[in-house]
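Re-run with default settings, no changes from the original entry. Doing this only to confirm the output is reproducible before filing.
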Amino acid sequence: MSLGLLLLEGGFCVEYRDFVKTIEVDQINLSSLHVEKNEEFASELKDISVAMDFGEKDHYVKQGKLHVLSGLAVIALSSKIEIKEGKMLSEEEIDSKEILFKIEVVFDLSYNFKDIEDPDEFVQKNQQHVENFCEKNVPVNAWPYFREIINSSTVRMGVPPLTIQALKRV
């Protein structure tokens, strides 16, 4: 996947760095939040493991703005449950008494386009750049909001605060 020049029909193409320069964060809004604590958790609170699943749910243009729905699911489990590479397990694989809590959150990140007359056409003709932007830039914008809501939600549940590591892109 090249982040260089993207050639498109109609001759409308831009470099990825120029594409990114046309976009500015407008708003980051909470779209949905589901928090569930298991009062029948079978293990000690100090013996937990955490698995996360993070990614883009959808993106679209509405009223001249690019909207990206970005989601994070976090599950805290008894350390008896083996988590492979920090990935989410299906609920069928886990005894419900071994789940301390689940948090699912989605943010709607909206972006303005600078000096673009027809954002719909611009996005349509630069779809590969939009995909790259959603994959590389949006997580960096959303991550601090995910960290805050996970931390504050765990505190409100009365469990030890969970601080998610900073997002590191290589």
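DSSP finds four helices and four strands in the chain. The radius of gyration is 19 Å.
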